[in-house]
């Protein structure tokens, strides 16, 4: 073929639009003609070789996969950030609520000697504390896992984040219960705190004081003292115990005073071996009082208990 015809066919040849016979003719001519071969090189340098339909489809599918994967990665990244922010917010709010709830209970109930109260209804108190601490602990654990293993354990962090929602509800129940049945009491064993009680129970303690000495006797030995008060939204209860050894003369004098005490209602006196016990009630407050005398040891033990609704 002439060069003019070959040059006209070159664009079609480059685009893979020529028939097989025309392609053979063009290739044979390019092999023998330097001018047409140079023209072909110029044209292919400026125009990229056309892709086949299969290559074009594969390229489109690859681009689609890249787009889908990048979209999923963005979504996962967004979810991870959202979970991290959610856990951080829950931890901060829950921790603040725990501290405020404890402070409100301690100061709101006027606890003079704040202590954790687990003697009465012990399991209930433990569950109240655990419920109130649930969101704080779970969110803190989740944040630690996210920080230590940022690219791993995602299933665990998402499970914990899912559990965090009911944990928040449990925390609210626990916090409300803290105000109704607080796991705190006012308690002391210090002998220097003798008869120094919380203000809200001063009246009932004053009633019981008729059986207790006004102060620890100077001659007292091996003196012990215990006072505790527990309050809920519905009731107050307290107990007080004191004991010491006295010289025989003071021991007999105190024994006589208690046996002749008229402030006790439903008074009962019992003797067992060397022990002489006087018990009764002090009204109108309804304080239960017991005094035990051990003649052999010269020891006196005073006990008072009160429980009443508000």
TrEMBL record:
One family name in Pfam for this protein: zf-HC2
Record's keyword terms, sorted: Membrane, Transmembrane, Transmembrane helix
InterPro entries: Anti_sigma_zinc_sf, Znf_put
Domain Putative zinc-finger: 3-37
Keyword Membrane attributed: yes
Family: Belongs to the zinc-associated anti-sigma factor (ZAS) superfamily. Anti-sigma-W factor family.
Protein known as: Anti-sigma-W factor RsiW
């Amino acid at each position: 073929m002439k060069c003019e015809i070959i040059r006209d066919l070159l664009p079609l040849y480059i685009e893979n639009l020529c028939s097989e016979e025309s392609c053979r003719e063009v290739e044979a001519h390019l092999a023998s003609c330097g001018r047409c071969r140079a023209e072909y090189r110029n044209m292919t340098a400026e125009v990229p070789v056309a892709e086949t339909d299969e290559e074009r489809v594969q390229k489109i599918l690859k681009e689609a996969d890249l787009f889908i994967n990048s979209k999923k990665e963005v979504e996962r990244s967004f979810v991870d950030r959202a979970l991290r922010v959610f856990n951080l917010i829950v931890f901060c709010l829950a921790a603040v609520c725990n501290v405020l709830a404890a402070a409100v209970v301690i100061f709101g109930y006027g606890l003079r000697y704040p202590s954790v109260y687990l003697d009465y209804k012990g399991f209930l108190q433990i569950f109240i504390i655990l419920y109130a601490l649930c969101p704080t602990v779970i969110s803190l654990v989740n944040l630690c896992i996210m920080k230590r293993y940022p690219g791993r354990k995602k299933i665990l962090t998402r499970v914990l984040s899912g559990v965090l929602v009911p944990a928040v509800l449990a925390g609210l129940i626990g916090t409300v219960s803290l105000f109704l049945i607080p796991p705190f009491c006012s308690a002391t064993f210090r002998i220097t705190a003798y008869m120094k009680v919380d203000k809200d129970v001063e009246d009932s303690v004053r009633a019981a004081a008729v059986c207790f000495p006004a102060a620890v006797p100077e001659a007292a030995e091996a003196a012990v003292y215990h006072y505790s008060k527990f309050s809920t939204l519905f009731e107050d209860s307290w107990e007080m115990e004191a004991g010491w050894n006295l010289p025989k003369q003071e021991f007999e004098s105190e024994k006589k005073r208690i046996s002749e005490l008229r402030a006790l209602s439903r008074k009962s006196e019992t003797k067992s071996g060397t022990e002489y016990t006087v018990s009764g009630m002090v009204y109108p407050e309804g304080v239960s009082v017991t005094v035990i005398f051990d003649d052999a040891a010269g020891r006196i033990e005073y006990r008072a208990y009160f429980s009443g609704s508000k």
